[in-house]
């Protein structure tokens, strides 16, 4: 059995901190923020490549790229959006190099839902598995938007910047993703917020 998310994140974190301490103060600050952000970054990487091992390699490459370009991070902007953009660009480069297509969500990577007593709730796990399987069936571009907006809680504008597409395209892809997900999983999705409301919250 492979590493758990926590173990893999801890392993990645140690290496990043070690590298950051050997660099400038700016890189050290970015490295410290990276460690706290690793679970989110790894979750996004898994959604892109569908493999824990590949996701770890992708996260490591993204962290190295971020540390090497720490001086380019603009204070006052969202660190998570900057990192998601770096990681996605690396993934696109990798796909182009390997001439591969298609991604999947590794269902076993979905986080466990734990009840108040500390024991897993069987019904909650079943729902989670159903939703994860439905997400895995979404087109790649719909899955990306769903994760960035609904899971990582980025604004439409931030998601558009990361994906390199217009805000209107983000909204239409998200609407289709939510509709397809609801139909596949048999769930009711909450109403989407307007772009003005979503961006005003950031």
UniProtKB/TrEMBL annotation:
The keyword Isomerase does not apply. Gene3D superfamilies: 1.10.1740.10, Winged helix-like DNA-binding domain superfamily/Winged helix DNA-binding domain (1.10.10.10). Signal peptide: none annotated. CDD domains: Sigma70_r4. Pfam families: Sigma70_r2, Sigma70_r4_2. One of its GO terms (biological process) is DNA-templated transcription initiation. It comes from the Bacteria. Keywords: Sigma factor, Transcription, Transcription regulation. PANTHER family: RNA POLYMERASE ECF-TYPE SIGMA FACTO, RNA POLYMERASE SIGMA FACTOR RFAY-RELATED. Belongs to the sigma-70 factor family. ECF subfamily. This is RNA polymerase sigma-54 factor RpoN. The lineage of its organism: Bacteria, Pseudomonadati, Pseudomonadota, Alphaproteobacteria, Hyphomicrobiales.
